[in-house]
Write a structure and sequence with these properties.
By secondary structure, this protein is of the alpha/beta class. It has helices at 16-21, 52-56, 60-72, 84-99, 196-208, and strands spanning 2-6, 25-29, 47-50, 75-77, 115-120, 129-136, 140-144, 154-159, 168-176, 186-191. Strand 5 and strand 6 form a beta hairpin.
Length: 217
């Protein structure tokens, strides 16, 4: 697992020893906007930690990059004076990052792809509901669904087109019961767990921008 740590305190940040103690690889940058002009833009990460002081004093360019990072990766904003609760929050954050398929910032894009799908709120995939994806990104997708959902709830998602159709553990990021901006009622989900072969095929689908012909896969 590798994390990106954004801190303008450099070696003074109290979180370096936590990352070292947990044997977590990390890259440290003093400003978010530096990412675009460094090799880190191509490197894959499981998550990003923002120093709270850096967020508070960010420039407009930094704020734009911070907004992008929040869309791409799991993130955690640290406290100025970390205590026991902060350690517990970081421990939970590390667990999320371990399950998250690593991504690079450069590769993030969303494409319009309609795929037959089904999802369930149960890990054993009991009582699944049918749905259709209307777009897909390395991070997640939009699913048609008129059933009320709560933000933050976990769902297990089956994308029937994938050769490995094992359910992907996902988290509901937003839900709309009304049609909006040309979209029917539905929800945006973020993938939390996926197998390596599923990640590879998802990336291939996004690169192609269309659903593959089953006879050619």
């Amino acid at each position: 697992m590798r994390l990106l740590l954004l801190s303008n305190k450099a070696k003074e940040t109290p979180f370096l020893h936590i990352l070292r103690r947990e044997r977590i690889y990390y890259d440290l940058l003093p400003r978010a906007s530096f990412i675009e002009h460094s090799p880190f833009y191509k490197r894959i990460y499981n998550g990003v930690i923002f120093d709270g002081d850096l967020v508070e004093h960010s420039s407009l360019a930094d704020m734009a990059m911070l907004a992008l990072l929040k869309k791409v990766l799991p993130y955690h904003i640290t406290l100025a004076d970390p205590g026991l609760s902060q350690d517990l929050d970081l421990a939970n954050f590390f667990k999320i990052c371990q399950r998250f398929p690593p991504r690079s910032f450069r590769q993030q894009k969303r494409v319009d792809i309609s795929l037959p799908a089904s999802f369930s709120s149960n890990a054993d995939f009991g009582d699944p509901r049918k749905a259709i994806t209307l777009n897909l990104s390395p991070n997640g997708c939009f699913l048609t669904n008129s059933l009320k959902q709560e933000i933050g709830d976990k769902v297990w998602l089956n994308l029937n087109t994938l050769e490995d159709s094992s359910p992907l553990l996902s988290e509901i990021r937003w839900f709309s019961k009304d049609a909006r901006a040309g979209f029917p009622p539905g929800m945006g989900v973020r993938f939390l767990e996926a197998r390596s072969n599923q990640i590879e095929q998802l990336d291939w689908l996004i690169q192609q921008g269309s659903t593959p012909n089953p006879e050619s896969t």
